Amino acid sequence: MTFYYNTLAPDFYLRFKMQFENIAAKEDIVFLCIGTDKITGDSLGPYIGTQLKKRGLCVYGCIGDTVNATNLTAAAVRIYREHKHPFIVAVDACLGRKEHVGYASLSTEKLKAGAGVNKALLPVGNIAVTGIVTEFGTDSFTRLMNVPAEKIALMGNAMARALCAAATAKERV
């Protein structure tokens, strides 16, 4: 099941946080933030990862130390090696329908990173959080390269704030 939330809506924070709390585990939450900081549209995952790491959460993948197509499997193996029973929240940018650009999605399914640019990578995560940064189309790679940095910052800040609040609330329960 997938839920969509407009990151610019006044009630985004509350609605996203509440849904996350309803479906996420109560302990050992690990964020796997996927993307590269070399392509603006694909930098949402590392941007969010950096924000979450600054707030003291367990994060794999941030600006300067990204998890991407070349090391995703190794990062997943490392998580399972370093955490006894991790609840992995996979975070990534994605392409979507025009009416969902600027939205965050929260899914109870594994994340299929790279699907928008025709890459078949290991599905990861207990749940998936994505930010729809641009419209899916014939030249997805070019579309990702042309996403404004301001859009990544606005979406990333909103999503990181909600994720941090929900994850830390889970730890206190």
Instruction: Give me the secondary-structure category.
Output: alpha/beta
How many strand units? 6
Overall shape: it is globular
Count, helices? 5
Strand arrangement across the biggest beta sheet: 1-5-6-4-2-3
- Within the CATH hierarchy, at the fold level, what is the topology? Rossmann fold
Quickly give the CATH architecture.
3-Layer(aba) Sandwich
Main sheet summary = 6 strands, mixed
Low-confidence runs of at least 5 consecutive residues: none
Give the radius of gyration: 15 Å
Report the mean per-residue pLDDT as an integer: 91
- Share of β-strand residues: 15-25%
CATH class group: Alpha Beta
Please characterize this protein's 3D structure.
By secondary structure, this protein is α/β, with parallel strands linked by helices. The chain has helices at 12-23, 44-54, 72-82, 140-145, 149-172, and strands at residues 2-6, 29-33, 59-60, 87-96, 103-107, 127-135. The protein has one domain (2-172): Rossmann fold. Helix content is 37%, strand content 21%. The chain has a six-stranded mixed sheet with strand order 1-5-6-4-2-3. The radius of gyration is 15 Å and the shape is globular. The two termini are 25 Å apart. The model has no long low-confidence stretch (mean pLDDT 91).
Keywords:
alpha/beta; 21% strand; Rossmann fold; 173 residues; globular
